[in-house]
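=== RUN LOG ===
request id: a7f3
mode: sequence -> structure
chains: 1
length: 481
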Amino acid sequence: MEGRLIAKRYEIIERIGGGGMAVVYKAMDQVLDRYVAVKVLHDVLHHEEGILRFIREAKNAGRLSHPNIVSVYDAGREGEIHYIIMEYMEGNSLKEWMEKKGPLSPEESITIAMQICDGLAHAHKNGIIHRDIKPHNILCAPDGQFKITDFGISFFSKATQITETGMVMGSVHYFSPEQASGAKVDHRSDLYSLGVVLYEMVTGQVPFDADSFLSIVLKHVQAPVPNPQQINPEVPGQLCRIIFKAMHKDPNHRFHTAGEMKQALQQALNQKTHPRNAILATSAEQVDDLHLPRKKKAWKQRVIMAAIFVTFVSFAVLIQVNENDSTANRPPASQKKPVEAQTAEALTNSSPKRTELNGTYRWWREIPDSKQRDRVFRHFRADGTDGEYDVQLEVGNLSASQFYYNIYVVDRFSSRLILKGKSVPYRKVPEKNFVLTRFHVSIPEVLLPGKGIVKIEIYSSKDRSDAVEFLLQQWGHPPKK
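=== RESULT ===
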């Protein structure tokens, strides 16, 4: 992409970030003579749902104009490239900033959180719910201004044509309980996530962590928020109470608006309450379920756990993409948390090292026959690993100037079509029955299975009557008979 001119205006300079959804490049706007960030949708998401979601991000962020929100200037499509043009920022993300500095002072944390409240208040006023507030999506400008970015899974709350209820979307460590259980979310979900960010700023760690995705999710729904003072005794009591209120399990008991939360933060900053004035018994006042009779509480917990499990099974891939999407317009962090730390394990006493649900889908039955013969596509070869493959094959006489391929990911969970109808140019060579053709296949790492296969289906006719499958990569071995 480097050197390419987008929309006859934006010259790509270098890649500066990327994740499960998109890649972000630094570019020069040749008309206004300024740097911009160009966000390009991954090829693997060039299907109806992925494109609509990308367009939704551009529209939602484009509705907003605020000093604490990264501006969107333009969006469009050029050939097979879907792009968004955004404000370019030189600084790091809040996540990278915290990794360098460690826990922030209460005063600094409050000041940052107040800026994010301002940005959220503007978004919420315009009907936009972000749904993925986390340090990775908060950028710091050199002048100390903090801005919210990446509205990739936001939605316009006044829109009725898109239903998100039942879909788990967001980043697991910053989930609200309603996100974790697949329930309907509103603007108060963003305030919960900001409460998690505030907790992390003053303590240097997230409130809920575990070896598996599902364990973290259940903690958001059931576990009381740990007292920040047990990690950092210098956290004022007033700030602790703000965190507990923002992270209340029941949205009705959180701050009603981002403006109300900012007001509480401003009061805490003014009062500079001494740490020893904190309320140490923090959990009982925020978890209403503690007051339920035992039988009712147990019944409710079972229902919640079942809802979480069913929702997770339905949308496991979507969760993984969002959790690893770091498409902010900035250089990537030096270290990434392994995908294995964000996937799920069974609701059993399985080993913490297990990173997949104990699915029963027989993935090995979909391994393509390596000895198959085809009259159109033959001598297939794929070089590469872990989502990046250089493919070459011989293609027989075609009447069209292109052929197509689909990509499937198959694991113990299911068989999933993740890329459909990707075209490959083909040029017939006179007096040759077969033409050697090469192309590259790129699959985001977060979509790859722990045990299973990635396969490619190649065809030339729209009805796929001449389709043939080839193996790109295999992880693990079929069970012994």
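=== NOTES ===
The chain has three domains: 5-87, 94-342, 363-475.
Residues 294-314 form the longest helix (21 residues).
=== END ===
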